[in-house]
TrEMBL record:
InterPro entries, sorted: CellSynth/LPSAsmb/PSIAsmb (IPR051012), TPR-like_helical_dom_sf (IPR011990), TPR_rpt (IPR019734)
Repeat (TPR) residue spans along the chain: 386-419, 420-453
Protein name: Tetratricopeptide repeat protein
Entry keyword annotation includes Electron transport: no
Coiled-coil blocks: 278-322
Membrane-spanning parts: 244-265
The keyword Repeat is annotated on this UniProt entry: yes
A Pfam family: TPR_19
Length: 468
């Protein structure tokens, strides 16, 4: 462990032996960060990937320079199909440690396989389309789209979970359980998966209990086929002896029973049915409200996920695009190499520096170390490049090629803003080229930036000649 202040190797004491800084709390923070990293590593080994993400995120909150934790977090994201998040972590890791970083291999493995990269991008686009179908209420189309997503990227955990949720919505419990089992094989302790599985298990138990009740009722009768008819006969029922007295008693009993039913039983029965109907209506209303609330929550989640997806895709384009951060950093490193290897090759160095996007260097995605390197290169090589561009512009000026002279002299002044000779000659080139407006602007700039100098006096004379 090194000191955060001077970089010296720390000992067992609570202060740095190099600079005397108090490192007691710093050691505790690093130890806690390492503990979270070890916990995340153990969880990743047993495929508790959501738990690993939480532990590794806490680790990086305490120590953002923990390269191993950041690389492992990227691997976990990649394993659950979150390619954009994975690449973001690896690119940040590479910015924090440019040399001897396995994140280089991970990024190359993705970028050097165009087919795989296109498949991953296509899976993300189709997943977003499935979310849009869910918002529109086209659940069947969403199911079809999610199946295509999983055929491209079978490890896309969120796609499995959304497909399972759609099966739950359709009460297709077997398919929902099959998708959730796939989720469990990817991430064994994902809370969303476990919550969905609990709902499926509860619904399955309820269906089984209803089936058992129907089975018990069917055992009270005997069914058999007689010709084209199905005969249903109660069991354990003795048939009464057929006689005239039995028929009389039967009719009297039926009449008495009907009278009792009409006067006593039927009103109570009707009231019971009304109560039952009201209770069932209330239950259905509550279930409908619950389903609507769940659907609203799902739509909110879909919108949040879609927005997050678009944001991460934009960040990925910013990192890996033709004018992105990675390309800017590579151009900067190439310019630094040219300056160290062949400092006399001024033209190649200037061309390398001009390929660097200055706006990207000023963005938050580029570390301070890279910005310092860029500024230092301009400070060291700028005057030499300016002098070379001035000579080239002067030669073009003498040959009467004023367009080339203007371009070279503008480059000369952009690399060294103290080069008053180049700026004055730029004004002369504009004047000779017939561009009085720009010539006036440049002469005034010479007088403003370099007052009380010979070049300022010459600019003033030239301006008087131009206006006269």
């Amino acid at each position: 462990m090194n000191c955060y202040n001077c970089g010296a190797l720390l000992t067992e004491t609570d202060f740095c032996t190099g600079c005397g800084a108090d490192v007691r709390h710093y050691k505790k923070i690093i130890a806690l960060s390492n503990m979270y990293y070890n916990d995340g590593l153990e969880k990743a080994r047993v495929r508790d990937l959501s738990g690993a993400v939480r532990s590794l995120t806490e680790c990086l909150k305490l120590n953002k320079f923990n390269i191993d934790a950041r690389n492992l977090l990227g691997l976990v994201y990649f394993e659950v199909g979150e390619t954009v998040n994975a690449l973001s972590e690896w690119v940040l890791s590479k910015n924090l440690r440019a040399e001897k970083n396995i994140a280089d291999d991970y990024i190359e493995a993705v970028q050097n396989n165009p087919t795989q990269l296109e498949n991953l991008n296509q899976a993300i686009r189709k997943y977003n389309q499935a979310l849009a179908y869910c918002q529109q209420g086209s659940l069947d189309l969403a199911v079809i789209q999610l199946k295509k997503v999983l055929s491209i990227n079978p490890r896309f955990l969120r796609a499995h979970q959304l497909l399972a949720l759609l099966y739950i919505q359709a009460e297709d419990w077997e398919k929902a359980k099959r998708e959730l089992n796939k989720c469990g094989r990817i991430d064994v302790r994902n809370t969303t998966t476990l919550r969905y599985m609990k709902e499926v298990d509860a619904a399955t138990v309820e269906d089984e209990s209803k089936g058992a009740h129907r089975s018990r009722k069917s055992e009270d009768v005997i069914k058999y086929q007689s010709g084209n008819e199905t005969i249903i006969q109660p069991v354990n029922v003795q048939e009464p002896k057929k006689s005239l007295a039995f028929l009389v008693y039967l009719l009297v009993g039926a009449a008495a029973g009907l009278a009792v039913a009409l006067t006593l039983i039927m009103p109570a029965r009707m009231q019971s049915l009304r109560t039952q109907l009201n209770e069932e209506s209330r239950t259905v209303g509550e279930q409908l409200e619950k389903r609507n609330a769940e659907l609203n929550e799902l739509q909110t989640q879909v919108a949040d996920l879609e927005a997050r997806n678009a944001e991460l895709e934009s960040e990925l384009d910013g990192f890996a695009g033709a004018d992105g951060t990675l390309q800017t950093i590579e151009s900067l490193l190439n310019a630094a190499y040219i300056y160290l290897d062949t400092p006399e090759d001024i033209e190649s160095l200037a061309q390398a520096l001009e390929t660097i996007d200055a706006e990207s260097m000023a963005s938050d995605t580029v570390s301070e170390a890279y910005r310092n390197l860029y500024d230092k290169l301009l400070e060291l090589a700028g005057p030499q490049i300016s002098e070379a561009c001035q000579e080239s512009g002067n030669a073009a000026y003498r040959d009467g090629d004023y367009d080339t002279a203007v371009a070279e002299l503008e480059r000369a002044f952009s690399y060294d803003e103290t080069n008053s000779d180049a700026l004055l000659l730029l004004g002369d080139a504009y004047r000779r080229n017939g561009d009085s407006r720009n010539a006036t602007r440049i002469y005034e700039q010479v007088m403003e930036l370099f007052p009380n100098t010979e070049n300022a006096r010459r600019a003033e004379n030239a301006l008087e000649e131009l206006e006269g």
